[in-house]
């Protein structure tokens, strides 16, 4: 049987995912023990963005996550391929995405601002492949891929398992687990409520902008 990654199965009971995650990788399928150990690497993967600032925010979150959890090996990763803005001059931005990601936005690749594209494609760094290798180089013998997504859509069902399986081929003997996305976790209620309260205080002039919207002027009354 080829190595396949099987994501966690969901249950709506109490809005939490089930405890059991099937692991996959070069050691085959098997139930893994609970908890992150010293030989586990964690990859937090998001979709990736044409905006460099958005991609850098994942790095900041990974630092926060590592500091708070105490996990030794934690790496960020992005899914998408991009054309580098350096190929197109100032103000062009990233002109197109390609099908490393299969969502409609990426596969359409219609974000042209300066006409037809030329030049090499690049992965928005770090890719899942690079993050996987970095975990192994730091001593991980199991890699836990945690999708920084809200719901179990196409990326979770297809893209992330495919990209992770490809990355694992380079590291025989290293297993991996793809965890559930954030989903209907009860703590997200607190996160959303906290963000709403903070933004309302900012609009009232009682709080500074948060890191997400700082400098954008988006958090205001329209």
Automatic annotation (TrEMBL):
InterPro entries: CbiX-like, Sirohydro_Cobaltochel/CbiX. GO terms for molecular function: lyase activity; metal ion binding. Gene3D superfamilies: 3.40.50.1400. Pfam families: CbiX. Keywords: Lyase, Metal-binding. It comes from the Eukaryota. SUPFAM superfamilies: Chelatase. The keyword Mitochondrion does not apply. This is Sirohydrochlorin ferrochelatase, chloroplastic. It comes from Vitis vinifera (Grape). The gene is SIRB_1.
């Amino acid at each position: 049987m080829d190595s396949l990654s099987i994501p966690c199965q969901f249950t709506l009971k109490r809005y939490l995912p089930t405890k059991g995650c099937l692991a996959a990788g070069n050691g085959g399928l098997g139930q893994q023990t609970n908890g992150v150990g010293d030989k586990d690497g964690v990859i937090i993967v998001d979709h990736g963005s044409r905006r460099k600032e958005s991609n850098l925010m994942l790095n900041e979150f990974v630092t926060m996550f590592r500091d708070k959890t105490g996990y030794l090996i934690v790496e960020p990763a992005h899914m998408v391929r991009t054309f580098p803005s350096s190929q197109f001059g100032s103000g062009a931005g990233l002109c197109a995405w390609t099908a490393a990601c299969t969502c409609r936005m990426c596969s359409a690749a219609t974000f042209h601002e300066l006409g037809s594209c030329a030049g090499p494609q690049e992965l928005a760094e770090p890719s899942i492949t690079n993050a996987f290798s970095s975990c192994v180089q730091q001593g991980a013998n199991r890699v836990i891929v945690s999708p920084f997504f809200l719901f179990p859509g196409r990326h979770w069902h297809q893209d992330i398992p495919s990209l992770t399986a490809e990355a694992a081929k380079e590291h025989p003997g290293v297993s991996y687990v793809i965890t559930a996305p954030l989903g209907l976790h009860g703590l997200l209620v607190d996160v959303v409520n906290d963000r709403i309260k903070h933004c309302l205080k900012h609009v009232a002039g009682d709080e500074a902008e948060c890191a997400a919207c700082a400098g954008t002027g988006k958090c205001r009354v329209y």
